[in-house]
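Open question from group meeting: does this chain pack into something compact, or does most of it stay loose? Before anyone orders reagents, we agreed to write out a predicted structure and look at it together. Recording both the input and the output here so the notebook holds the full record.
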Amino acid sequence: MEVHVAQKCGFCAGVKNAISTAEDVLQNQENVYCLGSIIHNNDVVNKLSDMGLRTVDEMEDISSGTVLIRSHGAAPAEIDKLKNKGLNIIDATCVLVKRVQKIAIELESQGYKVVVLGNKDHPEIKAVVGCVSDFIVVADEQDVHKLPTESRLGVICQTTQSPQYFSRMLAAISNHGFRELKAINTLCKEAIKRQQAAIDLCRKVDIMFVLGGLDSANTRKLAELCRRYNEQTYHLQNWSEFDKAQLGGKKSAGVTAGASTPEWIIAEFVEKLESYKSQ
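Structure tokens returned:
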């Protein structure tokens, strides 16, 4: 069986920065916390935990030390509370997420109702809407009715969504009615490249494996897109979840990975998958 790896996959610049920042801090400081998982990958989170990083869900669980702001960012109110507690803040927010936050603030200052397309429960979205007061989160076409008509709408999007999703949602909003519409493309170009590379590969192979955290939005998006073109698509966190029965009758396999999936996870999976070539 042939094994092919997508031309674009694995760590993006924002994730690399967050992890290298965490590693540098852990080498030089003690009592280091992260408010929520620094990235959505359990293998990486566990590795950093072994180095001393403490991941907590509530800031009340932090009384002293250093706090890493994860790659998804944090709302200004959260950061202010951490500062008021006298904690040392180190910001590892992805620069693209910071851009979305800045755009949201600018749109509101210009009198627009900020419309954020994406998953309201995703930490990136929570951080973005925490920057403004007049906003609404729209997940799909069924949510469009929540938007006020005869309003000035400023539309931005969760960075890990696909161009197809963004354009589909803009079309739905356009049909809903508005007084003025200003849409800014806030999609991550690296995420788009990974999506296209995954689609191109899954069309050419018998079976497709998407590696990464099950709670990783960009990884789930890769799996969702691949399934549209190849029903034999499996989203696995790592090799431990592989079932060789999935390879029955397959001659070629494709492998891609989310932006928060480390290279060693990909390399291990490919190496072990190749060992089934003659089986």
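Observations to bring back to the group:
The longest helix spans residues 13-28.
The radius of gyration is 20 Å.
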